[in-house]
Amino acid sequence: VDAQVAIETSGHCAMKENGFLDDGTYTAVKVIGWLARHPSQSLLDPIATMTEQPEVRELRFTVLDASLDTTAIVFDFCAVEIEQMCQNNNNNNKKNNEYGWSVDRDNLEGLRVRTGNGGFFMIRKSLHDPIISMQIEGSSVEDVRQRVVRPLLQLFRSESNICDTIDLTVLESY
User: pTM of the entire structure?
Assistant: First the structure.
């Protein structure tokens, strides 16, 4: 893969031509340069035809022991369990077929799962804090509750390696 730019959902951006340093000033100068070379275009023109889901949120699960090692372990466990649910779904396992989940293999940050109806959720571990973050997009709050929150709560509560390790309050209060 010839990746020229690496951008995280958190907003961090690094470019190959700058040695993939996460340098906001360098990125800002590149954007200003592009705007100067294209005065008749808006920075938003390239994405103008894309649609956004009405319900967009980021949730942050705190790792209870505040350890980065535990964060990595519980994230990996969550990812394996979620991928298993997607695999069961793709194999027409009736238990999970109702969720319509599929892993987005084109994603390189965390685990991104398509949930149907144009929605998705993505979980990723923080490299700096004992947090697992989750971005969610869906057609409505109720759609997200049905397609993401309820199945994840059921999964996370059924696994002591997860429910005893991370604070599920943000998901429970969605």
Answer: 0.75
